[in-house]
Amino acid sequence: MSDLTSSTPDWLVQGDNAWQLTAATLVALQSIPGLALIYAGLVKKKWAINSMFMVFYAFAMVLICWVIYAYKVGFGEYMLPFAGRPGPVLTMKYELEQSNLPSAGVMQNYPKSTMIYFQFVFAAITLVLIAGAFLARMDLRAWMLFVPLWLTFSYCIGAYSIWGGGFLFKLGVIDYSGGYVIHLSSGTAGFAGAYFVGPRLKQDRVNFQPNNVALVMAGAGILWVGWNGFNGGDPYAASPDAGAAVLNTNVCTAMSMLTWTLMDVIFYRKPSILGAVNGIITGLVAITPAAGVVTGWGAIIFGACSGSIPWLSMNLMGKKWRLFTHYIDDALGITHTHMVAGFLGGFLVGIFADSEGCAAFGLTNRGGAKDGNGRQVWVQIVGGLFVIGWNLFWTPAILLFIKYVCRIPLRMTEEQLLIGDDAIHGEEAYCFNDDVVGLEPSITARERAAEKMHQIHKGHDYDPEPAILEGRDIEAQASSEEGRVGGVRPDESGLKKD
């Protein structure tokens, strides 16, 4: 009986395979249902279905592209310094043979099918994160085309360059589990793409209350616990370093949440639960490039930084800078929670990487600056700048291709923006009172939109223009008492509900 037909080939370590599949499943749960629940709860009621659909569509489309050609671009044989040779991974022989990353020169003790799925869930969540910047206005057809194009020309490039054996891998950039490949790239794409997609309706920017905070917290809990697989799976084995990565991930996240909450109390006099979610997310993001190569003390330092620096970015830059108040409408603040926190974590690992942790992870790096390897700091900066620059070019290029070559608008029509889910999907998220005897039917989203459109045509004081707000600082006008989860403010902000 050959290795391929044996249930236990010589190279298979069943514990490694079991952990890798478990870790991959935990990461998949972060997208569906984790981020789907967060998005559905954070947006206005009229956008709950569309927001969840964007998540599920990205998850499905990335998987099909992944197995047909994209996995080999990110983790296959050398073609270019930043890309592998594309091709399918669908034959049974290929799925059953021992996993290896040919350009990186490493092998794993489980089948390639396990590695393919593990790497897929990382690719999928990256696109799901980008969606957070485009919610409540991006045309669904444009999103459907954007997903495979961005996966091909951005994600796969970063994955091969840093993880798959490309030029940044050879330079020695440390990205333990995706601080650069996933979070910095998605945050940069959200930042750049939000400008080209255009803003939400003016009224939606001023009043974008979350429709279900309990849903947000359920999703945030799934996201936090799922990160055990996100970072714990990247040694590609059930190794001691996997345990260290899981512990450090949770230590950093706890410290980040507490720091963000303290910042809210100091500056706004109240602890915010949505602010706490921000702290959780930035902590998870910042520790990702460093999880298994820093000490527990290092994780605490990471958490203190990730709970404060992105807080400042979101509450000062996001609310005061004209760039964000007038030009870039990042609906859920992906710029701050992923671009800022991702680069921060990648930079800090250059300082705090521990030589013993690096050796346990299988790296030849001599640790970071704290262990006398100052070179690692500028190596990390070079890696981060490459990811930022690549995405600042390719994200707009892809969106402009969709708009001008494919002739698909990037932004929904005014009527669709007024109606929401019912216009796009013919469905509404909450229908608890439908067909209840004795209740008068409530006004529908379409009827509300029709009335607003009528006001527009009669020249009343409703302004549908999505362009720059004439000298009005929306964010200052709608300032809240705490940091937001991507533009969402709690009831204390004084804004009217939807």
TrEMBL record:
Gene Ontology molecular function terms on file: ammonium channel activity
Listed Basic and acidic residues bias regions: 470-498
Keyword Transport included in the entry's annotation: yes
Bilayer disposition of the protein: Multi-pass membrane protein
InterPro entries linked: Ammonium/urea_transptr, Ammonium_transpt, Ammonium_transpt_CS, NH4_transpt_AmtB-like_dom
PROSITE patterns: AMMONIUM_TRANSP
Region of interest: Disordered: 459-498
Transmembrane segments: 20-42, 54-71, 116-136, 143-168, 180-198, 210-230, 242-261, 273-291, 297-318, 330-353, 377-402
Keywords: Ammonia transport, Membrane, Transmembrane, Transmembrane helix, Transport
Superkingdom of origin organism: Eukaryota
Subcellular location: Cell membrane; Membrane
Chief localisation class: membrane
Ammonium transporter AmtB-like domain boundaries: 18-430
Entry GO CC: plasma membrane
Entry's family note: Belongs to the ammonia transporter channel (TC 1.A.11.2) family.
UniProt-listed PANTHER family: AMMONIUM TRANSPORTER MEP2 (PTHR43029)
Record-linked NCBIfam families: amt (TIGR00836)
Protein name: Ammonium transporter
Protein source organism: Zasmidium cellare ATCC 36951
